[in-house]
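Running this now, will post back.
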Amino acid sequence: MQLDLEQIKGILPHRAPFLLIDRVLEYEAGVWAHARKCVTADEPFFVGHFPQKAVMPGVLILEALAQTGAIALLSEPANVGKLAFFGGIKQARFRAPVVPGDVLDLKCTLTKRRGPIGFGEAQAFVDDKLVCQAEISFALQGEG
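Update: finished.
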């Protein structure tokens, strides 16, 4: 099942310029999500990172991956209306720069949960080439 930008906004609290996914291509609530971010030259972070050679900051790639995982998590009926806070990042690796014109394919699979704490394995690809991978954790907060 796909989600467009307005449907994503119905699940995530993020808004521009911090909403870092444009479309969800597929997902299974509570299990995994596959999203996409089209990286354009007019992204606000490119003004300072870097003026002479635009490169998407790695921390924002990780945030886009976390938002992808949050789609999987917050689309579960029991979690509607809750917030998913970033809990941690382990084993993050950046394999190639992401530049204007790239299309980021973002994948996150939820791997383990203990109460409101959960974990996921995340990967970002450009043209089927792995550009970033990490283990992420999150904490749910709020009433569902």
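The chain has two helices and six strands. More later if anyone needs it.
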